[in-house]
Amino acid sequence: MSSAFQLHGVTCQFGDLVAVDEVSLSVKKGERVAFIGPSGSGKTTLIRLLNTMLVPDSGELSALGEPVADLGVASLRDLRVRIATMPQHLGLVENLTAIQNVVLGRGGSRSTIRSIRDLLFPSSRDAQEIHKLLDRVGIEDKLYTAISKLSGGQKQRVAIARALFQNPEVLLADEPVSAVDPARARDTVKLLTGLSEELGFTLCVSLHHLELAKEFFPRLIGLRDGRIVFDGSPESLNETELDALYQLSAEEMMTDA
Predict the structure, then answer these.
(1) Phi first, then psi: what are they for 17, rounded to 5°?
(2) Quick one: 174 exposed, middle or buried, by C-beta within 10 A (0-12, 13-18, 19+)?
(3) Which helix (H) or strand (E) element contains residue 9?
(4) 3-class state of residue 47 by DSSP
(5) What does the pLDDT average to over 42-59?
(6) pLDDT tens digits for 58-94?
């Protein structure tokens, strides 16, 4: 099976802060992977490297078989069309409707003029497809509802529909359930993993909810201080490795206080 991502010694830093530190990993096409670890461990930076919005300071990164460092502007744009991202705060436009937000999912593959036209006047073909997507995620009656009038769980489902409208080969989700209650969080993760299995796209999700990660993902990658300290199945994550991931050092406890 070919790889969705290949990283070899990838480092990314912001000033003196090393957010991702010499990370090497491979994610196969069609895999479902959860990135776990405490706040500040590098999960968000890793997601932004995978969607090519960040460039490594050192090391090699390939996405969907393309060496990212070798790509020109047009090729990089084409690659990003194949990788959908749900950012941590979803990135929805509150004063637009659900259909308008979802239609933005194909903005990267359409001209600026067409994107504006589709935003203002979605075609009947797009409207039918988006209605089916919203039906698939359980909110088909919210097609013309403004995002500002939706609940947190409904907004998540609009963001999922927008990602699916992109027809991605990969879906990256950064803490997609951080703002909802445990029951809705579980429903959302179950929906994402079910869609990945059904449609065949690669799914990489960063999660604070360890139990959800263990329940729904066959592979967990644990990050701490920008380094991978665990990579394996949920069953193989033992107490020692959990301590290595989540136990605060004396210095960190003093900082948190």
Answers:
(1) -85, 120
(2) buried
(3) strand 3-14
(4) helix
(5) 95
(6) 999 999 999 999 999 999 999 999 999 998 888 899 9
Query: Residue 168: is it exposed, middle or buried by C-beta count within 10 angstroms (0-12/13-18/19+)?
Result: buried
Tokens of 89: 């705060």
Strands 66-67 and 83-86: unpaired
Instruction: For residue 36, give every residue at least 6 positions away whose Cβ sits within 8 Å of its Cβ, in sequence order, or none.
Output: 43, 206, 207, 208, 210, 213, 220, 221, 222, 223, 230, 245
Select from 169, 49, 161, 47 the least CA-distant residue to 104: 161
Q: Using one digit for the tens of pLDDT, what is the confidence trace for 136-166?
A: 999 999 999 999 999 988 999 999 999 999 9
Which residues on adjacent β-strands are paired with residue 224?
A: 227
Assigned token pair, 60 = 């090699």
Question: What is the value of pTM for the model shown?
Answer: 0.88
- Length of the chain as a residue count: 257
The structure tokens listed for 133 are 């997507």
